[in-house]
Amino acid sequence: MSNIQTAPRSRRNTELLLLLLALVVGIGANMLVGLDQDRAFDSDFFTQGITLIVLVLVVHVVLRLRAKYADPVILPIVTALNGIGLAMIHRLDIATGDSAATRQLFWTGIAIGVVVAVIWLLRDHRVLRRFTYLSLIASAALLIFPLLPFVGMEVNGARIWVNLGFATFQPGEIAKITLAIFFAGYLSTNRDLILLAGRKIGPLQLPRWQDMGPMLAAWLVSIGVLVFQRDLGSSILFFGLFMAMIYVATSRVSWVIIGLLMIAVGGFVAFQLFPHVTNRINGWIKAFDPEVYNAIGGSHQIVQGLFGLASGALTGTGLGQGRPDLVTFANSDMIIAALGEELGLIGLSAIVMLYVLLVSRGIRAALGSRDAFGKLLATGLSFTLALQCFVVIGGVTRLIPLTGLTTPFLAAGGSSLLANWLIVALLLLISDAARRPTVTGPATESRPPGDRPRRRSKTDERNTGSTEVIQP
Amino acid sequence: MGELVVTALRFGFLILLWIMIISIVSALRRDLQIGKRNRTGSPSAREVRKNPDLAEAAPAPRAAPRRLVVTEGPLAGHSLELAASPILLGRAQEATLVLEDDYASGRHARLFPQGSRWFIEDLGSTNGTYLAENQLTRALPVDPGVPIRIGKTVIELRP
């Protein structure tokens, strides 16, 4: 149990300063976008700028009131990323005549509304532990939802959308959070069981068969997502999330090895059986083959992205001066290529750096967190962000096959934005709980009965089967 | 708009991005610094002067606990040899020490070894776990002879 202590200080003023810098970055990017077309200060620019300022300042004030000790850099990092994303989407709108930036702004507003609600109402992440099994059911429901007739929609070959009437939504994005809650709750309770039992073969301690149950379930969910929704990215994300969390919970390498073997088997079978997976792999390995390049659903998109990155070189063409709109889905799947073209390697590595810092702050919150559930949840959520970045940026740069995950906070897409802001809200709450000063030492550890607000639900009592007792 | 201004702004933006990253990192330097002000062990005397909250009682010399003894409650008199593995306390059948105590939760608390000491951690129980009459809010080290109360049961570590 790491017990890292730093002097308690709320550091909200540091956050405010960094937040202002982040807003300058985001709004500055938006200003540069239209500068050489003399469209720098049109009405879109002002609406986007002012909305963004108001929204993040509201979050800042809510943090001051409700989660005083939350990590001071998470919000500025996310604000900068969201601002850069908005600017790039706005820039691509100018080129294509779309209005994706307005939709993105609308969803940013909704996402921040949800963040404020979560911070204000939830207050303590430990409440979520009660919903361990409920989150499992919720995850299953969210994943099955798009497969239902009438509500489900198929877009570009993947059946992961639902039609809400006024907008479309990808429930799978929320499922990654509910799955993280389930895994955190399950593993923090059953960790000892999984740890203790099992045979030892050489340096590896193998788990018992009955403890493999959840692992197999996670594997089946990933395969199910791959088969029925044809969504390779989410399938990798769910399985990676579970593997990371079980490794953190048990610190057993054997789980990782078993998991990697399962991925290898699943991946090989999928490559043989499913044409969409075969397509992706071919588009990755033989990207520059003219046959694959010209095929429908071939490597045209990824190769155009690579050309864009190449023409950006070290310093980029400058915002608004490249041709990122030549790439299909430049504002969602390929936004990294668009940013790489206009900001160059220097700008793109700055963006990657922002992600690295964000994930490291999440892991830091996990390290400082005092309860096992919080530790696992923070690790899982940070890892989700990290894995998304790896899968997307790796795909765009042709390190791994391109799959349909979204770049957190940058890419156009409401559900992804909402889900990632929710992750941020939970990380802020966990870091607040981790950094909040507790009185240490036996003399001050006690609280008189009834002093602490006890919010124990009925379900909790049913689960444990015990009656509430007055001070023993 | 002049070519020169556009180019200057273009590079200016890249510099701004990295200024942002450097400011974030320097805002975190207290956290990132290893060994000096942020440490995983006990705080220095100077830190304690500045923040009395960090002060912790000096650890008394202690013998390593070997046995877990139930001193009060339905199971009074039972004892358990401590091995190197964690111990789950609760009413659930898979618990290491199955408490027949109506006031204990299924998975109530766990005792685990870390270094040379044993720690107790509450697993989100309904009625809480008390270490020497103080309710646990986080994992705390348990010294031999200090009573741990779970519902009506009191257990102790003995050397």
Give the spatial strand order of the biggest sheet of chain B: 2-1-11-10-7-8
- The total beta strand count of chain B reads 11
Q: Helix- and strand-based class of chain B?
A: alpha+beta
**Major beta-sheet overview of chain B:** 6 strands, antiparallel
Distance between the termini of chain A: 28 Å
Portion of residues in helices of chain B? 10-25%
Helix content of chain A: 55-70%
Write down the secondary-structure element order of chain B. Answer: HHHEEEEEEEEEEE
Multimer state: heterodimer
Note the main sheet of chain A.
3 strands, antiparallel
Q: Note the run of SSEs of chain A as H and E.
A: HHHHHEEEHEEHHHHHHHHHHH
Q: Tell me the number of strands of chain A.
A: 5
User: Strand content of the residues of chain A, in percent?
Assistant: under 5%
Number of helices of chain A: 17
Number of helices of chain B: 3
Radius of gyration of chain B: 25 Å
Q: What is the radius of gyration of chain A?
A: 23 Å
Mean of residue pLDDT values of chain B: 79
Low-pLDDT segments of chain A: 440-472
